[in-house]
Amino acid sequence: MKKLFYALSVAAVAIFFVSCENPTGGEPGEDLAKAVAGSYEGYTSASCAMFEDMVNDGETLVIADAGDGTVKLTVSSEMWGIFSAESVKVMASGENYELKGEGKVSMAMGDAEPKEYDFTVEGTISSDKKVEITYVCPAVMGGLTIVFRDGEAPEKPSENFAEKIAGDYSGYSNASCAMFEDMVTSGEELTVVANEDGTAKITMISSVWGT
Questions:
Q1: Which member of 34, 135, 157, 206 has the greatest number of CB atoms within 10 A?
Q2: Taken in order 73, 75, 76, 80, is the CA torsion positive or negative?
Q3: Is the pLDDT of residue 78 over 90?
């Protein structure tokens, strides 16, 4: 009888400890939804079949505890509108938190009336509150992906437009002055060389006017 009572006691203790464990990982008893809830300031980076890495600064992500272990995610974007996803799952992954869900966003293409589009959302929030959330809208512009990150947008290196026009060109020149007008010379050569500072060296070789 004592052995049976002891066995039942051990079983009861085991059940108690199991019931206290967080089924989604993390510290026992940790409320994952409350752990990630808050307002985050950052920027978005958007890519699709038409463009890549279009950055928009000054965006806001709000994560609200839904009270049932899930969260509501809302990204307010001046460029893309408001992405809202409810019942987003929060799971622990090591020292980080993973989020996964789906929702809808209202967008207007050109002059058309706004239309609702489905999207999926997933991302990671680190223990020190570094955020990276990815939204994917398959039906928008051949597949639109928007990534929200906290903090200020990194500065992109300035584009060297001189490199786009660098090359050798063949053509003609048309000269005018007080003594003549529209003197055309064919067979002229023009060379454009890009400099590292964004400027260009332009050289024209003319059989009439020299170099």
A1: 135
A2: negative
A3: no
H and E: helices and strands count for the chain: 3, 11
pLDDT for 208: 87
Residue 79: per-residue pLDDT:
85
Q: What's the half-sphere exposure (Cβ side, CA atoms, 13 Å) at 22?
A: 15
d(CA 191, CA 206): 12
Element (H, E) at 139: none
**How far is Cα 167 from Cα 174, in angstroms, rounded to an integer?**
21
Q: What tens digit of pLDDT does each residue of 88-147 get? A: 999 999 999 999 999 989 887 667 788 899 999 999 999 899 999 999 999 998 899 999
158/196 Cα distance (integer angstroms): 11
C-alpha pair distances (Å), 50 with each of 38, 47, 105, 154: 33, 8, 20, 22
Give yes or no for a contact between 96 and 126, defined as CB atoms under 8 angstroms apart. yes
What gap in Å lies between CA 87 and CA 103, rounded to an integer?
9
In this prediction the pTM is 0.62
Of 96, 95, 163, 89, nearest to 125 by C-alpha is 96
